[in-house]
């Protein structure tokens, strides 16, 4: 080829690279000097991977939908920052005051004077109706178990309602306020058996700061300001728009370019780059969750607690925190998430100690290095495909365990396939996680009676002492009496390591500097303060 | 002609049902319950999980669920309820189909125009650097996966230059635009996804046209026309292209179902609210009714695409007659 033509071709081929390198980025307008006073008006554009699957909290199975619906249908009391699941940790919402009975078998709530967005009064009949819906066999509510101990909801007058319980127990208040209150005059027109097949966007009513107005599935959701919201002057925003985009890379690009203002859950590895030039505010927040390795307690050698401790000590969990979630988290300590009132702050994680791990493995008859006597431990480690952090974790854990002579075959599987295999007991170990919303039920996860198919004790963990402690916990009549039992439970489970508690990850939100008032202080409800957000 | 059309369309019915049955079987072989995917990492008591499964009928045997679905479809024309979209399946499809047709149609126009023009242009410059460059670029466009091409297009044209929006079909405030404004906004959002969707097909089309043109240009009738003094431009566009265009018509018809089904990746990358997105979300949530309905629709598009190609061929080439007419 002639030299001149070659140069022309080369220039053309290099043009795309030049285009990428040059060209200004979209200028993200920097906010002027922060205005301390909230300003009414404006639209907040939120990016979300998830769409709303139903505008009825008791039909929806999506977490993000619930975050939005909590701004539409308020609860009797809302969680406030600080320890969860404790009466003092709830602020008045639809209920102004509440008082327990002397015998500990009921709670009486006094509703505030408030109206629905259509002007109808919010009254005690709405509360009773909601309880009937929550406990209906036809309504597939995820948190239905929270109402199991409530035998009746009695209407005393228009604004007074009393919850009657089967027995006295500390979680009564939490269970009573779980779930948004629905308007009987709207939702009552549809029989419960038809609820799951009904388009609830047509309800067009709210008690919270926002009313759902538009829903274009797979595209956009719009909520508009509820002028009848009981807090005067709020919400500040006129409109909240949710752009549904199923690709996180696209969402972070839109956040950078200013097409969206707020993203609630950005990848950990993007946090530093997104916040590096100051054009975006990065907001890490606590989220009650942890990732773990679940060891098959019904299969040797993973049914040996000492063996499980050795394998845990062989994994450098701090390195996982640093390398997988960019340091936005902490090493897992035990079975309770740190963002829960019942977690034991004095419980230390098992140390990273490969030498001790090797000693235990050798004592069990396994070789920990080439040339050593003993058999090599071979195992398969599963996880759900599509979760980038967990897939990367598989590779790192494989390397960590290889240092102590354990040969790990890693196998990412589709979520349902993995779950099917784990529930059937056909696995060595799997890498998964728990996300807790509100109440943390350790008994449902660790009691031997909760092994499949009866419960969520998927690893078939069994410790009679722990079972006995759970029995005592179930009979506890106060938060104070629960605390020492909970700590003992956590200590024993941490000692047994039915799971290797790997890490607790923070979640990270990011927003444009024009969005003010952002505060994420309730781990189970990242949009808890949406009514306080405003546009500068 | 009418009988011919009806006979061809009648094939669609058993095809659609057969495809839907096969898809149902495939969905049912997936282990676990659809509830697992939805609940994810949330620990939910067994009795609540069972209640959710009962409410949605996931606890019923697969044959029973299939018979119920088939009965509702054949007896009442109902496609069922979409639990992932909280609306009837028919409505979900009715909302998703127009955006897909718009995207696929625009991509088709793009790849036809670009493919034919570039193919003819490069054929006229055989052996020169322009032909080699176009060939190289078309191979690149054909080889690049659509999702990668889409993400690069967003990075370059949305983020770097800010020329086009990165996702969706319309602006956040499109409802407040005038009619003309909404149309322009739609066109603005359409450019990137349509170009990405049509890129691979344009590359294939270019190669087809290029080869057809080169063959046609070597024919004696072209030499004869040149000897008669016909200009190069008229030779190229008036004589050779007409000859080369016939297989293109076939290809275009067959491309329609490919575009519709291939739009899934592009729709996910660009958050285009079409059938691809609907199917993708339905598969993830095992929204069986939606998956079956979209699959049947894809089968229908295959039949229609083939039929359109045959009709177009018969119109374009007088030597081609539909079987019915020649038999009659």
Biggest interface? A-B, 79 and 63 residues
Helix amount of chain B: over 70%
In this structure, how is the largest beta sheet of chain B organized?
Answer: 2 strands, antiparallel
How many angstroms separate the termini of chain B? 11 Å
Silhouette of chain A: globular
| Counted beta strands of chain A | 21
Provide a count of the helices of chain B: 14
Percent of sequence in beta strands of chain A = 15-25%
Shape of chain B: globular
The overall strand count of chain B is 2
Q: Largest beta sheet of chain B: what is the strand line-up?
A: 1-2
Describe this protein's structure.
The complex is a heterodimer of chains A (about 525) and B (about 325). Chain A has helices spanning about 5-20, 65-70, 125-135, 170-175, 185, 250-255, 270-275, 305-315, 315-325, 355-365, 390-400, 415-425, 440-445, 465-475, 480-495, and strands spanning about 45-50, 75-80, 90, 95-100, 105-110, 150-155, 160-165, 210-215, 220-225, 240-245, 260-265, 280-285, 290-295, 330, 380-385, 405-415, 430-435, 500-505, 505-510, 515, 535. Chain A is α+β, with helices and mostly antiparallel strands. In chain A, the strands form 5 sheets. In chain A, strands 8-9-10-1-11-19-12 form a 7-stranded mixed β-sheet, with helices on one face. In chain A, helix 8 (about 305-315) runs antiparallel to helix 10 and helix 14 packs antiparallel against helix 15 (about 480-495). The longest helix of chain A has 19 residues, at about 5-20. Chain A is globular. The N and C termini of chain A lie far apart (about 60 Å). With about 325 residues, chain B is mostly helical. Chain B has helices at about 1-10, 10-30, 35-40, 45-55, 60-75, 90-125, 130-145, 145-160, 180-215, 220-225, 230-270, 275-285, 290-315, 325; strands at about 80, 85-90. In chain B, strands 1-2 form a two-stranded antiparallel sheet. In chain B, helix 6 (about 90-125) runs antiparallel to helix 7, helix 6 (about 90-125) crosses helix 9 (about 180-215) and helix 6 (about 90-125) runs parallel beside helix 13 (about 290-315). The radius of gyration of chain B is 24 Å and the shape is globular. The model of chain B is unreliable at about 325-328 (pLDDT under 50). At the A-B interface, helix 1, strand 10, helix 6, helix 12 and strand 17 of A face helix 3, helix 4, helix 6, helix 7 and helix 8 of B.
